[in-house]
Amino acid sequence: MATFLFLIPPGAKSQDENARIIRDHFSWIAFFLPYIWLLWHRAWLAAALVFAIQSLGSVLSEHPVFGFAGVGICLATSLLVALEGPTMIVAGLRRAGWTVDAVISADDRATAEEIYYMDIKAGEPETRHTVSLPASETSTRRHAPMLGLVGFGEGR
C-alpha cells in the first residue's frame, strides 16, 4: 500500500477539485538524477544544494585517499533525495500556504482519490471521520509503577 497526501490551496475548502495529490514513496528517478528531479518539482534551493554536495563528492571521489568518502557522499545524497523528496515538496507547498487535508493509504492513486472524494459523491461534503482519544489527565484510574519504577502519585 502507498500513502497519498492531499494538499489544498490557500483559502480552499476540504475536498477541493484543485487538491494536489503527492505519493509518499521511494523514487528511482530521484535516486539516479536527484538535482534534475528537484528542479522538475521546482525545489530550486534544494536542487542547488544537492548539486553542490554531489559536485564536492565527485571531486573527492577522484582523490586517492578520500575516494570512497566521495562516492559515499554522492550515494547518501541521492538516497536522501529519493526517500525524502516528496516530503520536501510537501514542505515547500506548506510554506506557500497549502494545507494537508488528508493522508490516505491505498493501493493506487485512483483508489485514494475515490476515498478522498467519497463524501462529496454521497452528498455530505462536511462529514469527516475523526477519532478522538481521551487525554491522560481526564482518566480517574491511577497508573501503578511498572517494572519496579517509582510512581509519581505523591508528586516529585
UniProtKB/TrEMBL annotation:
The chain crosses the membrane at residues 28-53, 65-85. Keywords: Membrane, Transmembrane, Transmembrane helix. It comes from the Bacteria. InterPro entries: DUF2628. This is DUF2628 domain-containing protein. The lineage of its organism: Bacteria, Pseudomonadati, Pseudomonadota, Alphaproteobacteria, Hyphomicrobiales.
